[in-house]
Amino acid sequence: MYENILVETHHKVGLVRLNRPKQLNALSTATLSELAQAVGELERDASVGAVVITGNERAFAAGADIAEFQQTTLAELMKGLRADQYEVLRKVRKPLVAAVSGFAYGGGCELAMLCDLIVASETARFAQPEINLGIIPGGGGTQRLTRQVGKYLAMEMILAGRVLTAWEAQKHGLVNKVVPVELYLEEALELAQSLAARAPLALRLAKDAVNRAQDLSLENGLGLERSNFLVAFGSEDKQEGTTAFVEKRKPEWKGR
Amino acid sequence: MSVLLCEAQGGILTLTLNRPETINALTSEMLRELARVFAKDATQPEVRVVVLRGAGRGFCSGQDLREFEGKPISYKSHLRNYQAVVESIANLEKPVIAALHGAAAGAGLSLALACDLRIAAADAVLTTGFSKIGLIPDAGMNYHLPRIVGYAKAFELEALSERLKAEEALALGLVNRVVPVESFEAEVARQSAALAQGPTKTYGLIKRALRRSASATLEEMLEYEALLQEVAGRTEDHKEGVQAFYEKRPPKYSGK
User: Fold this and answer.
1) Which listed CATH number (3.20.20.80, 3.90.226.10, 1.20.1250.20, 2.40.50.140) goes with A5-196?
2) For the segment A207-219, what is each residue's pLDDT rounded down to a tens digit?
3) Res. B24: pLDDT tops 90
4) Which three-class secondary structure state does DSSP give residue A133?
5) CB A39 within 8 A of CB A16
6) Chain B contact for A179, CB < 8 A?
7) Catalytic amino acids of A?
């Protein structure tokens, strides 16, 4: 049913693999659409608690599909198809984990940064080389990279095409964890499993609060956190979580 | 004749620096060849160990200064040739042996130090050399040397540039063993054959671990080691090693 991606579920974790190995998983508009659709379905699937997005060992995603870009007119791009798909992914409420190995260039780097956690293979490479094509990042690169690594490194990557190794990316806070290439997907799945085993409502409220931290003043952010905290406090899962803690047993989450 | 001879036999790729009239002084052509061979030929799965040696009277007298005679030179760009070689040796996930006889000087010593194991003939003479012509050591010597001998000795060796005999180099840990001249080739062959029958994947993981160790805290190293051991634990050779132990026989490793 999908041509450019593979979708699997591993226990309570959805796994979406970009599957255009010959094109190094270049994010054609069709691929982005399928990705957004698949992640949207996993978002609605109550048995899934977290989603992992990955490519293959050689490439997470090497960027947009340049051949397609070459043939795309401004008017076509302005229809907003690509932007719409990024928006779908941005609005996902379940935790998204990127499992990155090899190239995460351009749109690939942007896709990784759109996720909530990044597990990188030691062979992962991050870059925003759009400038070499006479364009600039268009999937959040200038905004998310700058917020993450700071102005000067972001400028160097976006203006001068600097590539970060996995260890450099970790040093600059761009990835959570660097692991041997043989294990990157397993480690990402394991991390996602550990998220999927947690209280779904609290996860969603926490993700929302952390994401909004970047947009809000401290005062407004604290207000938003308080609201989300109160919602979590009113949940059945709060009662279950605190009771299980007191009774020294494992909680059983209801998602309510 | 080619300036770099390559011979593959029995899992051993032997690379011979071949400009004996200059004690194998390194030229840009040789360095590009070395980088190409280390990044391509040496990565073939049938190759399980690489030996780097020199033809004629010695291992290598260092950069060929005549290459720059009467020409303006940018060391910064010339050194990219060395960077490619040193990085490809470090990234190669199998053992690289430097077989040192006669002179190992300047950048020749740098390349030897970039290898994983150094076997010296009793007639070997090691010297850093660079400061004798007002240059600092390059090709990674400032990384490798202090990690072997410590800052104090490294400064002495780099600044005074005295000649070390094989036994002195052995005492400093700069070479792993010293062999009589008559049995040097046989010992190199024996050692490389032994490594070629070893657990190659494991050797590669050891290289990864040791490289990581150069910039990791204890806690980071313990974590990373655990992951690498997970990888090693899944190799065929680990299973074979354990099986052979139980059966009280020597293991037969496939390198995988």
Assistant:
1) 3.90.226.10
2) 999 999 988 999 9
3) yes
4) helix
5) yes
6) yes
7) 64, 107, 110, 130
Whether the CB of A237 is below 8 Å from some CB of chain B: the reply is no
State which amino acid sits at residue B44: Q
Domain with CATH 3.90.226.10 in chain B: 4-196
Q: To which residue do tokens 């002495």 refer?
A: B156
Beta bridge pairs of residue B54? B17
Ranges for all domains in chain B classified under CATH 1.10.12.10: 200-246
**A152, A208, B131, B155, B173 from B162: Cα distances, Å:** 44, 64, 10, 11, 16
A200-246 domain in CATH 1.10.12?
A: yes
Residue to test with chain B: of A101, A122, A123, A165, most B Cβ within 10 A? A122
The C-alpha atoms of residue A255 and residue B87 are separated, in whole angstroms, by 51
Nearest to B89 by CA among B50, B38, B47, B139: B38
- pLDDT value at B218 more than 90: yes
How many Cβ pairs closer than 8 A exist between chain A and B?
17
Task: Indicate the domain borders of chain A.
Answer: 5-196, 200-246
CB contact (8 A) between residue A183 and residue B227: yes
Element (H, E) at A218: helix A218-233
Look at residue A79 in the predicted model and tell me its pLDDT. 86
Which value does ipTM take for this structure?
Answer: 0.89
From chain B, the residues in CB contact with A122 under 8 A are: 208
**pLDDT single digits (tens) B161-204:** 999 999 999 999 999 999 999 999 999 999 999 999 999 999 99
Please report residues of A whose CB lies closer than 8 A to that of B228: 180
Tell me the pTM.
0.93
Q: What percent of chain A has pLDDT over 70?
A: 100
Q: How far apart are CA A90 and CA A84, in angstroms?
A: 10
Work out the pLDDT band at B253, boundaries 50, 70, 90. very high
CA distance A122 to chain B (A): 10
CATH superfamily of B200-246: Lyase 2-enoyl-coa Hydratase, Chain  A, domain 2 (1.10.12.10)
- Record: contact A167-B215, CB cut-off 8 A: yes
Question: For A47, phi and psi rounded to 5 degrees?
Answer: -80, -5
Write down the CATH superfamily of domain B4-196.
2-enoyl-CoA Hydratase; Chain A, domain 1 (3.90.226.10)
Cβ distance A180 to B228 less than 8 Å, yes or no, reads yes
Question: Does the distance separating the beta carbons of B227 and A180 come in below 8 Å?
Answer: yes
H or E segment at B172? helix B166-172
